[in-house]
């Protein structure tokens, strides 16, 4: 018997690795595409070295090894893959997709990309964590905008 996967499970697997949510939704070509794209961007930007050096407290090395021209693609691809698989999970289960669900994801992509830009400047915060903070800020702003829009529309 196959177990039903709920949207939150798909969301969490997508956060773990872009493309996994699509594979769980049985969109194998899309999932493979996002996995390959994530791998290429990760390798070209030296993201894993950036993460490793950031966790080791070697921020200068993390900045030096990073190819920011490639790294700037990562937040948008990452967050779109998460969003797309999450919405697909709702559709696959025949559930209504919450209105304006895109706002937290797209806002997180914008702020995380800005975080990538600023992570190239030495600061007390390790370079890996600046875009992650941007995701948190973006999700918060996106949910606030979504709530504001929904409140206005319900009047």
What are the key terms here?
globular; 9 helices; mainly alpha; 0% strand; 155 residues
* β-strand number: 0
Compute the gyration radius: what is it? 17 Å
State the end-to-end distance: 45 Å
Structural class: mainly alpha
Task: Describe the model.
With 155 residues, this protein is an all-alpha fold. The chain has one domain (7-153). It is 74% helix and 0% strand. Helix 1 (7-16) packs antiparallel against helix 7, helix 4 (47-55) packs antiparallel against helix 5 (59-65) and helix 8 (102-118) runs antiparallel to helix 9 (129-153). The radius of gyration is 17 Å and the shape is globular. 34% of the residues are buried. The mean pLDDT is 95.
How do you describe this structure in short?
The protein is 74% helix and 0% strand.
What's the structural blueprint in terms of helices and strands?
Elements: H1 7-16, H2 20-24, H3 28-45, H4 47-55, H5 59-65, H6 68-71, H7 74-92, H8 102-118, H9 129-153
Helix pairs in contact: 1-7, 3-7, 4-5, 7-8, 8-9
């Amino acid at each position: 018997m196959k177990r039903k996967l709920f949207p939150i499970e798909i969301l969490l697997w997508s956060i773990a690795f872009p493309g996994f949510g699509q594979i769980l939704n049985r969109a194998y070509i899309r999932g493979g595409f996002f996995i390959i794209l994530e791998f290429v961007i990760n390798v070209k930007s030296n993201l894993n070295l950036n993460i490793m050096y950031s966790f080791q407290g070697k921020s200068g090395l993390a900045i030096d090894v990073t190819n920011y021209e490639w790294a700037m693609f990562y937040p948008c691809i990452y967050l779109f893959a998460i969003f797309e698989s999450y919405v697909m999970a709702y559709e696959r289960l025949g559930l209504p997709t919450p209105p304006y669900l895109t706002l937290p994801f797209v806002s997180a992509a914008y702020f995380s990309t800005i975080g990538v830009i600023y992570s190239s400047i030495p600061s007390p915060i390790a370079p890996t964590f600046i875009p992650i903070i941007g995701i948190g800020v973006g999700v918060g702003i996106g949910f606030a905008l979504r709530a504001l829009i929904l409140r206005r529309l319900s009047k």
